[in-house]
Amino acid sequence: MAKNINKTVFYEATKLKLNLFGECFEEWFPVFLHSTWFKKLYIFDFFAGSGKDLNNNSGSPLVLLEKAKGTNRKYCINAKKEIKFLFNEGEENKCKELKQNILQYIKKCNEENDCGECIYQYRVENYNFQEIFSNTSITNIFNNTEYGKFILLDQYGFSQIDEQIFKQLISYPKTDFIFFISSSFISRFREHPNTTKYIDTSKIKFDEIRPNEIHRAVANYFRDLIPAEKEYYLHHYSIRKEEKKGNYYGLIFGTSHTLGMEKFLKVCWKHDPLSGEANYNIDNNYEEGSLFEILGENVKKDTVSNEIKNKIFSGEITDNITGMKFAMYHGCEPNLFTEVVKKLESTNKIVRIGDKNYSSTNIHNVKTYIIKVL
Prior knowledge:
The chain is an alpha/beta fold. It has 14 helices and 9 strands. It has helices at residues 12-34, 60-69, 92-113, 129-133, 136-143, 163-171, 183-188, 193-196, 214-223, 258-271, 291-295, 299-314, 320-329, 335-346, and strands at 40-45, 82-88, 121-125, 147-153, 175-181, 233-240, 248-255, 350-354, 369-373. Residues 1-6 have low confidence and may be disordered.
């Protein structure tokens, strides 16, 4: 049986994980809510827990409900479409607690705001993950192109999100997902049958990876499962558990849309201004407390910027859309590409042909300009 973290006080690493879940959803929700492309929104939390820790800190179900409400109820008041939540918890006792915690949350919210009844619909289920994830009624929702879907998978360990589940996730239309995975345990038990039946550890060169890069390597393992011809975006965030040195966990986010990736990168770079992917110095670029830490030497941005320059000069990047996508594929926000182009243009090394707007957000909406090397 998995450890019941809801019967203790959340670790700081767990609180960070929940913050990232919440901020990611907070970026996602209004985009899908206000879009005319979706008739309904579905939010799934398949490993929901009991909803609170010992100190009444909110777990993922209550975090999602709170973010969907919005500041001063700005989202729920103006919602014009159906929004449905499904919370699943496989352990019966925790599921019962979850039902009570959600009922209390909804009741308190209704009383405080005098709204009578919550407009959001929700269900709390008690199923094994594989059973509910493969249920026909659920997969029909996943495959419906008229529905927007957000899937949260806060699994215990790594045994639920295997290659098959991952490939299903990236195949569903209008679906963004984020999942947690215990990367250190995959490394530690890399040869154990209980690991290799879920993760093909032979494809990860553990002996060539520093411990603090483990989650990056696991994310790359999943990234390599995406078909080469498929435009799909994946980014990760590594979390070191301070209470247990050497344990590295993390999140992996997936989306088929540039805006989804842009939103998640925004959250990651807010939490980690030096690499956009960890709550620690993942690349060992500086000594903690040193001048470089204070100044924020940004090796990652410099590396990706140089790659962008080389690809512009070699003719591999000839327009802004391709360039911004390249930045995002390499874990950087699209404005990094814009910064590179501005510098090259100011030194008369390139000229832009077409739209002169330097916009670097909402890639699907910006106008294309061509880059000509001088």
